[in-house]
């Protein structure tokens, strides 16, 4: 198992993701990736040469039976200020709008809620838990369903809200995050969303696993291809 703190730190430094005095919010879904990210950013904060503030925010989508107690205890143990924002997003998406493809609207409304809280708390950077395997499944999603060669960015500035989104785990493997969560007994909340594990992104992740089974080198080659700008020759 690789050290996820090391890979995260390397990514933050190489991509110059953090500037002195940044006030960073981790978008904490309660899932394994954002729980691991909060844990590791809080460790990194203690020795980072660049000083930054750290908080966590969960957008409570309004699903029944979503218990955030374990996330509260977790943030408390890390001494990270934690804010839960209650919303009616689930009701709007599933009951009022009865969306056939709810994920896009849901993600959009969640982003709006996150930027409102960040604004209230004067936070300027949003850290998300996406990892290298999310980047690969997003690439396939975009190629197969949107006809474009596009994936997640290390960092992007959203001028409308003046928020910079960063993804410090983008060079980290999902398997390493899973190993880290298990060996450190970090709690993971069960997603209350009815779409959980029934998304196109999940289909892409299963498709990729089948490809990796046939060709064990293919995951590494795909990641190399994504970084290989010099040899990107597409119908030129
Ligand atoms: N309800 C939420 N509140 C705050 N941030 C969220 C929420 N849901 C997702 N995020 C952020 O967006 C990222 C990507 O969302 P996605 O739905 O793919 O994550 P997830 O699979 O639910 O959970 P995780 O990535 O934490 O394992 C998460 O890693 C997290 O940083």
Automatic annotation (TrEMBL):
<dbReference type="InterPro" id="IPR011063">
    <property type="entry name" value="TilS/TtcA_N"/>
</dbReference>
<protein>
    <submittedName>
        <fullName>ATP-binding protein</fullName>
    </submittedName>
</protein>
<dbReference type="InterPro" id="IPR014729">
    <property type="entry name" value="Rossmann-like_a/b/a_fold"/>
</dbReference>
<keyword id="KW-0808">Transferase</keyword>
<dbReference type="GO" id="GO:0005524">
    <property type="term" value="F:ATP binding"/>
</dbReference>
<dbReference type="InterPro" id="IPR035107">
    <property type="entry name" value="tRNA_thiolation_TtcA_Ctu1"/>
</dbReference>
<keyword id="KW-0547">Nucleotide-binding</keyword>
<keyword id="KW-0067">ATP-binding</keyword>
<feature type="domain" description="tRNA(Ile)-lysidine/2-thiocytidine synthase N-terminal">
    <location>
        <begin position="24"/>
        <end position="188"/>
    </location>
</feature>
<dbReference type="Pfam" id="PF01171">
    <property type="entry name" value="ATP_bind_3"/>
</dbReference>
């Amino acid at each position: 198992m690789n050290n996820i703190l090391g890979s995260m730190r390397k990514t933050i430094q190489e991509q110059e993701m953090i500037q002195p005095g940044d006030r960073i919010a981790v978008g904490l879904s309660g899932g394994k990736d954002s729980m691991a990210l909060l844990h590791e950013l809080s460790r990194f904060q203690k020795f980072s040469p660049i000083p930054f503030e750290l908080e966590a925010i969960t957008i409570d989508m309004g699903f029944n039976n979503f218990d955030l107690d374990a996330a509260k205890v977790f943030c408390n143990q890390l001494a990270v200020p934690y804010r839960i924002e209650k919303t009616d997003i689930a009701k709007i998406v599933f009951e009022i709008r009865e969306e056939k493809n709810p994920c896009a609207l849901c993600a959009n409304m969640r982003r709006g809620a996150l930027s409102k809280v960040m604004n209230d708390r004067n936070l300027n950077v949003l850290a998300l838990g996406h990892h290298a395997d999310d980047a690969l499944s997003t690439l396939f999603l975009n190629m197969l369903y949107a006809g474009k060669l596009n994936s997640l960015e290390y960092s992007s500035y959203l001028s409308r809200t003046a928020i910079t989104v960063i993804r410090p785990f983008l060079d980290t493997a999902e398997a390493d995050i899973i190993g880290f969560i298990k060996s450190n007994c970090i709690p993971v909340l069960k997603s209350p969303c009815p779409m959980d594990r029934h998304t196109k992104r999940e289909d892409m992740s299963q498709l990729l696993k089948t490809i990796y089974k046939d060709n064990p080198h293919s995951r590494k080659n795909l990641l190399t291809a994504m970084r290989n700008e010099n040899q990107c020759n597409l119908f030129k």
